[in-house]
Amino acid sequence: MIDDSNRGREVVNSGLFSRRSFLAKSSYLGAMYGVAKLLPMPALAAELAEDSRISQTPIVDKGFASVRKIGDGLYATISDPSKGFQTVCNGGFLAGKDGALLIEGFISVAGAAFQMDALRMVSQVPVKGALDTHYHFDHSMGNAFFGANGIPLWAHANTAKRIVESYGVMQGADKTALLGPLEKAIKDAKTETARKHREDYLAHVTTVFSVSNSTVLALPNRPIDPSKLPMKVDLGGVTAVIESYPGHSGTDVIVRVPEQNVVYAGDLLFSNMYPVCFDTQATVSGWRQTLKTFASWDKDTLFVPGHGPVCGQEGIALLRALFDDIEEQAQKMHKAGVPAAEAADLYVVPEKYKNVAIFAWDFSIGPTITKLYAEWGAK
Ligand SMILES: [Zn+2]
Question: How far is the CA of 187 from the centre of ligand 1 (A)?
Fold first, then answer.
């Protein structure tokens, strides 16, 4: 285990890794079959087709992700994992007169490089830094790109530790021992639905294992102390404000541009998707409180979510409604005496949410239900 995180930072910042060699190794992403189950998604919510801030034509579209202008010096990178796994999560960048800020390390160095290339299509200003909105692997496994290019990397102060604890431990680990319990859970499943949920879970954890073992982990070298937020970053005519909110991962930070009502929300916002609540530090009550705050912002706010299409306040309203619906069904099951572990498999997606994507049940709806039970003090 890496106990001296500074040593790791020196290694990734030494510039020993050429971009070419990283790109050549990106083929392991072909193993990411699990994520391909995500529904293909448009880059924009239908409601935004007429929004004058948003360019209808992307500056670049590689299938796996496209980049479009969404404001003055503001760009959104929107992924479509059904067409490739270089980025997987969304991101974006801000480019002012004096400097640029890149958002997200993505799931691979190829993804981080793609976004850097997109920035260079529109601006040659120096990159002041990059930012991981949180530690999750689909947002941080391409971090080595920043180290290799001498770009400072900001993230919540706990991000480095959680990357090492979550993905560092998988490197060189015994795959059979690690996945054995998940395979047993499939065998032990009492219903067809439960078995399907456990199978999807195994597929995703297998992906995390493969990606972790194929990646040179790189840690943020500009830890952000959440107690010192908000933090303003002046890029010259564009001011980014970094803030932290609870809910998704215990390490969540967002980038706001209040002057233009634009928010890069990271995974505190899943757009047209069920919330992903599996993290040990995810809290349903904290997350819903955060969404209430987002909903209180200007009605014209544009949100770049961690996953799914760019949206307005209707995207926040939908995610809140999904939490409400899960709670309503969970409460009924609790009152009927259904234990948490069973209830987690029994939520029924209502007809009106049939087109809302689910990123593996056991990462999203299942843990939302067990966490709700825990918040009620129930089992
Ligand atoms: Zn996440």
Answer: 28
